[in-house]
Design goal:
This is Phosphoglycerate kinase. Keywords: ATP-binding, Cytoplasm, Glycolysis, Kinase, Nucleotide-binding, Transferase. Its main location: cytoplasm. GO terms for molecular function: ADP binding; ATP binding; phosphoglycerate kinase activity. It is found in: Cytoplasm. The protein has 15 helices and 15 strands. It folds into two domains: 176 residues, Rossmann fold (3-Layer(aba) Sandwich); 190 residues, Rossmann fold (3-Layer(aba) Sandwich). β1, α1 and β2 form a beta-alpha-beta unit. The protein is elongated. The protein has 395 residues and is α/β, with parallel strands linked by helices. It is 35% helix and 17% strand. The structure holds 3-phosphoglyceric acid. 3-phosphoglyceric acid binds next to loops.
């Protein structure tokens, strides 16, 4: 069920799990990308305009347990940004996730108003799916909404699983963001328009092996870039110079080598940079000289990959194809993004870094769907069943 199925919610208190785990400047705590907050706005506006009040909760980062170090992970910053985006005040509920102050603030909450709980992971019970902790949150409201697609794969988070469980038989639904993500990815996997192409990048083959294996059963062609390309190249006997490739990565790539040259394409040229002087670069085909490491796909590869994208009817992309945070090494990632933005294909992007890159290049509005999920996107495409979604009421 989605929030559209809720009926009259005037005066109800809605507990909503959002994923405001946004990138921040590690020193100042300034939010560097608020996409995940913006993505939850339609659901929050809908609830507020229907006369409900909202109790929003999220985790941010992975707290260390040291309050001084973790201060930067408090939800004050996201509450402030949320307030700016919604145009209504967002009250912070206190320094603990649950407790008397929070219960009192929730009880006093008026229709149209928003309360933000403290970072859920400041309480160790959150990641233990603790039923008592969940009960303390559950008693704050009348309705549970899951609009945290980026966290849906976390099966041990109380806010995702134990809280909706504790709230039954009160209504438990998904918000617009989760509903859209599920619909788009379900459609992509069930009835893709062909030819279907995938572009994969990022660092580790081992992290994405299950995802790649599923993709290989679905797509017509898989293009590899990013750090993982050098793993495949090394495994095929290419000298990758000073590019670091761990042994376990070579092992992970082993079973996939049979697809290289047919379903899987690797870069034929790459931008390399001197390990001790990144300003010294050279485009290389074949072996990479000692002292140099691969940092981006080369121009010939980009031209080939762009042509493949232009020929496809569906393109799914996960993982930057180069070190895009460095402007000098961002051409490949930008080029892949441009090819997708200019194509008539259904284009889907998943994974935090890839989404960040496409936004940085100002191309996101030309992509059919940019997922808010990182690990959740991979897991959902892999066909994993989420314990969080099993708690949502069925229509
Ligand atoms: C994410 O960014 O992928 C989600 O917010 C989940 O965060 P986690 O990987 O720390 O569980």
């Amino acid at each position: 069920k989605t929030i559209k199925n809720l009926g009259d919610i005037q005066g109800k208190k809605v507990i909503i799990r959002v994923d405001f785990n946004v990138p921040m400047d590690k020193k100042t705590g300034v939010i560097t990308n608020d996409r995940r907050i913006r993505a939850a706005i339609p659901t929050l506006k809908y609830l507020l305009e229907a006369g409900a009040s909202v109790i929003a909760m999220s985790h941010i980062g992975r707290p260390s347990g040291d309050p001084a170090k973790d201060a930067i992970l408090k939800t004050d910053g996201v509450a402030k940004r949320l307030s700016e985006l919604l145009g209504v005040p967002v009250k912070k509920a206190g320094d603990t996730v649950v407790g008397p102050a929070v219960t009192a603030a929730a009880a006093a909450l008026q229709p149209g108003h928003v309360l933000m709980l403290e970072n859920l992971r400041f309480d160790p019970r959150e990641q233990k799916n603790d039923p008592e902790f969940a009960q303390q949150i559950a008693q704050l409201g009348d309705i549970y909404v899951n609009d945290a697609f980026g966290t849906c794969h976390n099966d041990k988070d109380a806010s995702m699983v134990a809280v909706p469980k504790a709230m039954a038989p009160k209504p438990r639904v998904v918000g617009f963001l989760v509903a859209k993500e599920l619909e788009v990815i379900d459609g992509l996997m069930a009835h893709p328009k062909r030819p279907m192409l995938a572009v994969m990048g990022g660092a580790k083959v081992s992290d994405k092996i299950a995802f790649i294996n599923v993709l290989l059963t679905k797509v017509d062609h898989l293009l590899i870039g990013g750090k993982m390309a050098y793993t495949f190249l090394k495994a095929r006997g290419v000298d990758v110079g000073s590019t670091r490739v761990a042994d376990e990565e070579l092992t992970a790539a082993g079973p996939l080598l049979q697809y290289v040259g047919n379903k899987i394409s690797l870069p034929i040229d790459y931008v390399t940079a001197k390990s001790d002087d990144l300003n010294t670069t050279q485009v290389v085909e074949g072996n990479i000289p000692v002292g140099f490491e691969g940092v981006d796909i080369g121009p010939k590869t980009l031209a080939n990959y762009s042509a493949e994208i232009a020929k496809s009817a569906t393109v799914i992309w996960n993982g930057p194809v180069g070190w895009f945070e460095q402007p000098a090494f961002s051409k490949g990632t930008r080029g892949v993004g441009e090819a997708m933005a200019n194509s008539h294909a259904v284009t889907i992007i998943g994974g935090g870094e890839t989404a960040e890159a496409i936004e940085q290049f100002g191309l996101d509005s030309k992509i059919t769907h940019v997922s808010t999920g990182g690990g959740a996107f991979l897991a959902y495409v892999e066909g994993k069943k989420f314990a969080s979604l099993a708690q949502i009421d069925e229509v």
